[in-house]
Design goal:
- About 30% of the residues lie in helices and about 20% in strands.
- It is of the alpha/beta class.
- The relative contact order is 0.14.
Length: about 525
């Protein structure tokens, strides 16, 4: 296996797939000519090595794009990292809509590829009649879930422990197709103001409406800002058999009363059974964390190819973590299906930059220590890898934090890079499953099944209890097309009931984006 990869013909760096020892010579094409470059020092796996001399101030090119400028003269064969390359990004920028004609063609090509793969798999040529299916739960409101759980949603952090105790006691009564009773504690719902309070209410309402929950108990305290009566208008119309409410201050024994309500919810939810549903009804969130130098080579582009396949089948994907779009945002802007979406994407980016500035924080204080250890040197480096999860499809929707997806295809969602907050935002937006790529590994979960996709085989082997899918084989002996189909089939299995590692471990997390003043 080759020890390095030159991602784009125009790159002036290669990425070490395995450590390149000092003194080792590689042969690589530079400016159309074959060159022999000797490593001046050891190049760690996932890190970059210059393949030509780069003058101080010169552009460092990876993925065919600038990932920063050289801080000093960098000779061919030198290790390129934070010590000799820095971000070239500024603060607020002016953007112009320059739609990429190739994007529409790429989207069409992806649809044709998906149809051909279905045909090769024996699905026939009539894709409308022969769509891939998963075994899902059809809800009375027309939504489709991939789990049939009972959720306990506290309106305020004061009843977190009560919610957990309720779920623990009620699990003794689970039956039939109902899988588990789960509590989702959080520290908010009171002492908040303005948009901060509105966002909390929106996220709670979104989760109450989520189709992965066959039944929901909304647990209030009674005196909180976001009490049940205040929250109900955010929830809107609901099935009274599916959603129950309990105010703890009005109950003599809130745990016993809640368990009785949940028994009824279980009876109701047990009436749902899995049935074949077109993959066009899938909504999949896409997120990365603990990225490394292989993230933009293996796992992220693999998720991008998956996204193209799902969208070609009529499905929906959602990309978030806006701060990790900085430096690659124009790629997404120019793939917007129309100018209105372009302007929404500009606002998505600049609103987050202004959020940083309003708190006197550096916009480009990224990547993290773990990212740097894995080989990522600048935010541009990280973002160009991160945005590959979007594949090649046109952007069809741009969502504010707490907003639910309305449009099929690729959507962008406003949320921070924080893993728990962003994954919760994806679930609240309507994602039934989240795909989470990682080069470092993490055990966290979210309100929905969270598929951990490793960027390298070492991580997949070491943390088999965390990692669900290994994209590291893409730099070994597997093709992108082969593994994209493999991932697609795996997601269908998860949607049909296969547990991911965090579910098997009993992990269920949620987090809300806290931005404002606490009273």
């Amino acid at each position: 296996m080759q020890n390095f990869l030159k991602i784009n013909d125009n790159d002036n760096v290669v990425v070490a797939l395995n450590a390149i020892p000092r003194g080792e010579t590689i042969t690589v094409e530079v400016s159309g000519k074959e060159s022999r470059i000797t490593a001046r020092e050891e190049i760690p796996a996932g890190h970059k090595m210059a393949v030509c001399d780069i003058p101080a101030g010169g552009e460092v090119i990876k993925y065919g794009y600038r990932i920063g400028n050289a801080k000093e003269d960098i000779p061919a064969g030198a290790w390129i990292h934070t010590h000799n390359v820095g971000t070239a990004l500024g603060d607020l920028l002016e953007y112009s809509y320059e739609p990429v004609a190739e994007a529409a063609a790429a989207e069409t090509a992806a649809a044709e590829t998906a149809a051909k793969e279905r045909q090769d798999a024996g699905a026939g040529t009539d894709s409308a009649a022969q769509d891939a299916t998963f075994m899902g739960f059809r809800r009375t409101d027309g939504q489709v879930g991939v789990r049939n759980e009972i959720w306990v949603i506290p309106t305020v952090g004061c009843v977190n422990n009560v919610a957990t105790a309720i779920a623990r006691a009620a699990n003794a009564f689970v039956k039939g197709s109902v899988q588990e009773v789960i509590a989702f504690p959080h520290p908010y719902g009171c002492s908040q103001m303005g948009d901060d309070q509105e966002h909390t209410r929106a996220i709670l309402a979104d989760l109450i409406r989520h189709p992965n929950a066959g039944g929901v108990l909304v647990l209030g305290l009674g005196c909180e800002n976001s009490n049940i009566d205040v929250l109900k208008p955010y929830i809107g119309e609901y099935d009274e058999n599916r959603v129950k409410f309990l105010v703890a201050q009005e109950s003599g024994d809130e745990i016993a009363d809640a368990v009785e309500l949940i028994k009824g919810l279980i009876d109701y939810a047990a009436g749902f059974e899995r049935e074949p549903v077109s993959v066009s009804r899938l909504v999949i969130g896409m997120k990365c964390g603990g990225s490394d130098g292989l993230s933009g080579i293996t796992a992220n582009p693999l998720v991008g190819r998956f996204s193209d396949l799902l969208i070609a089948g009529g499905g929906t994907t959602i990309l978030t973590e806006v701060p990790e779009m900085f430096g690659a945002e124009t790629i997404l802007m120019n793939r917007c299906a129309n100018e209105e979406l372009f302007h929404k994407t500009v606002d998505l980016i600049n609103d987050f930059k202004n959020y940083f500035k309003s708190h006197n924080q550096t916009i480009y204080e990224n990547p993290s220590p773990g990212n740097k250890k894995g080989g990522i040197s600048t935010l541009e480096d990280k973002s160009l890898g991160c945005t590959q999860k979007s594949g090649s499809a046109l952007v069809r929707g741009v969502l504010q934090y707490g907003e639910r997806v309305q449009t099929s295809g690729l959507n962008l969602l406003s949320a921070p890079g924080n893993d728990l907050v962003a994954a919760t935002a994806l679930a609240a937006a309507g994602a039934q499953i989240v795909l989470f790529t990682t080069g470092r590994g993490t055990p966290f979960a979210s309100p929905v099944p969270t598929v951990k996709i490793s960027t390298n085989s070492r991580l997949a082997s070491k943390k088999a209890n965390w990692i669900d899918f290994n994209a590291g084989v893409l730099v070994e002996d597997k093709s992108m097309a082969q593994e994209a189909r493999h991932l697609f089939d795996y997601v269908v299995e998860v949607a049909s009931g296969r547990q991911v590692c965090s579910e098997a471990a009993g992990f269920h997390d949620m987090a809300i984006f806290k931005q404002g003043v606490t009273l």
